[in-house]
Specification:
Length: 260
């Protein structure tokens, strides 16, 4: 079924495209609001810029599909296979991705605010600068995921299989408490080629990372006036503290409640 036929059928009132074979279809900028694509084969389809608001994509095959800048807010993607799909800049606000396979998917800059990612497989996924504020990631698998610059504030990470602590710290955490800010700045200093530049920074010098070809250990809003030298805590300990302070829930919240 070619693009014209698909859109003709859809525009003609045939909203039910469940189970349709749409492999490799060209659906750039297609208007598929409320479409029923349950179980459809969209493997390798080009849905760049498509409007899929509230679409039913339960169990759909979207392996290697192009969904760059697509609008999927409120879409039902339960159990969908999006492995290797490209979703850069996609709008997935309040989408249901529970049990979805997003292994190796590119979600750079995607908006997943309030999305349901319970039991989702995000192994090796790219989530650089993605918004996951308020998302539910209960029992999700994030091993090897790239969270650089991603926003996780208010997310529920209960039972989630997380990437390395150093990777979690490179998500963007914004404003943190004064005590945590000091500890995170100490981590940055301890892993800087010249920790003394932090003292110079406090004294009115330039940013310690000017001209340095390495990135920071953690992304947060620094408070220069609070910095004081001292031993750094481990990445694991700081990851726990950041998650407890900034996320809605996690296994580490339970540890704090239990006094551990």
């Amino acid at each position: 079924m070619d693009r014209e036929e698909i859109l003709k059928r859809y525009g003609g009132g045939k909203r039910n495209l469940s189970g349709a074979d749409l492999r490799g279809a060209n659906l750039i900028n297609a208007d598929l609001i409320n479409a029923n694509l349950r179980g459809a084969n969209l493997r390798g389809a080009n849905l760049r810029g498509a409007n899929l608001i509230n679409a039913n994509l339960i169990g759909a095959d979207l392996i290697n599909a192009n969904l760059i800048n697509a609008t999927l807010s409120g879409a039902d993607l339960r159990g969908a296979n999006l492995s290797g799909a490209t979703l850069g800049g996609a709008n997935l606000i309040n989408a249901d991705l529970s049990g979805a396979n997003l292994r190796g998917a590119d979600l750079s800059g995607a908006n997943l605010r309030g999305a349901n990612l319970i039991n989702a497989d995000l192994r090796g996924a790219t989530l650089r600068r993605a918004t996951l504020r308020g998302a539910t990631l209960i029992n999700a698998t994030l091993s090897g995921a790239d969270l650089s610059g991603a926003t996780l504030s208010g997310a529920d990470l209960s039972g989630a299989n997380l990437p390395a602590p150093s990777s979690l710290l490179l998500a963007y955490w914004g404003e943190v408490s004064d005590l945590l800010c000091v500890e995170l700045m100490r981590l940055d200093a301890a892993n800087h080629p010249d920790p003394s530049t932090f003292d110079q920074w406090v004294g009115g010098g330039g940013c310690p990372y000017n001209g340095i070809k390495i990135q920071r250990m953690a992304l947060f809003s620094e408070k220069m006036h609070l910095y004081s030298g001292g031993p750094a805590l481990s990445c694991f300990e700081l990851m726990k503290r950041v998650i407890v302070e900034k996320c809605a829930a996690s296994d580490y919240h339970e540890e704090k409640t239990n006094g551990r």
